[in-house]
Write a structure and sequence with these properties.
The complex is a heterodimer of chains A (about 120) and B (about 110).
Chain A lengths: L2 E5 L3 E2 L5 E8 L7 E7 L6 E7 L4 E3 L7 E6 L4 E6 L8 E10 L5 E6 L3 E5 L2
Parallel strand pairs in A: 2-11
Antiparallel strand pairs in A: 1-3, 3-8, 4-5, 4-9, 5-6, 7-8, 9-10, 9-11
Chain B lengths: L3 E4 L2 E4 L5 E7 L7 E6 L6 E5 L3 E2 L7 E6 L2 E6 L9 E6 L6 E2 L3 E5 L1
Parallel strand pairs in B: 2-11
Antiparallel strand pairs in B: 1-3, 3-8, 4-5, 4-9, 5-6, 7-8, 9-10, 9-11
Classes of the chains: A mainly beta (about 120), B mainly beta (about 110).
């Protein structure tokens, strides 16, 4: 059973850069899509973006100017970088595995447990 | 962005009840609609994808239906472990968007 685990600093100062890594165990990072999603405290889920096994990226336009998602297949990891953070970026950040269907649509079948990132001075 | 609206926002029910949760899209999304269950302190769990396909390992008491803009998730007989928050998500177009969730509570 594949497992995903987020890691990174739990506290980031305003205007600085948030950096998280998701380690995939129990399966290969190849042939899937890798997703970042966040959930502000007490609120719903927000799609951040994905990277495909071939390196294609897709970002939420609301965050596109500040987001980079990358993959390191040699380490079975993928990463999220979010620059110029503000208090509005405080959230539980999840990584997930995406399955892109041949006829369209994508669903997220495996999720990490999430890591809380607080933006505060 | 496609807006997803779930109703009700919360629901009280008893073990053994049949419940139906609703999700509506702001525009047609064909059948590209997924359902997730989230329990406190855990990441969401995929239940249903492409509107009605049951994810492997998910109990058959869960079922999904709908197409276009209106979708439902039905739990045929509530079990104690089903009390959680449920989210719908459209994958018709990016940015993928989620509903605000329906919290299913024990009556």
């Amino acid at each position: 059973q594949v497992q995903l685990q987020e890691s990174g600093p739990g506290l980031v100062k305003p205007s600085e850069t948030l950096s998280l890594t998701c380690t995939v165990s129990g399966g290969s990072i190849n042939n899937y899509y890798w997703i970042w999603i966040r959930q502000p405290p007490g609120k719903g889920l927000e799609y951040i973006g994905y990277i495909s096994y071939s390196g294609t990226t897709n970002y939420n336009p609301s965050l596109r100017s500040r987001v980079t998602i990358s993959v390191d297949a040699s380490k079975n990891q993928f990463s999220l970088i979010l620059s110029s953070v503000t208090a509005a970026d405080t959230a539980l950040y999840y990584c997930a595995r995406g399955i892109m269907m041949v006829r369209g649509g994508q669903h997220f079948d495996q999720w990490g447990q999430g890591t809380l990132v607080t933006v505060s001075s | 962005d496609i807006q997803m609206t779930q109703s009700p926002s919360s629901l009280s029910a008893s073990v053994g009840d049949r419940v139906t949760l609703t999700c509506r899209a702001s525009q047609t999304i064909s059948r590209y609609l997924n359902w997730y269950q989230q329990k406190p302190g855990k990441g969401p769990k995929l239940l249903i994808y492409i509107a009605s396909t049951l994810q492997s390992g998910v109990p058959s008491r869960f079922s999904g239906s709908g197409s276009g803009t209106d979708f439902t998730l039905t739990i045929s007989s509530l079990q104690p472990e089903d009390f959680a928050t449920y989210y719908c998500q459209q994958s018709y177009s990016t940015p993928y968007t989620f509903g605000q969730g329906t919290k299913l509570e024990i009556k």
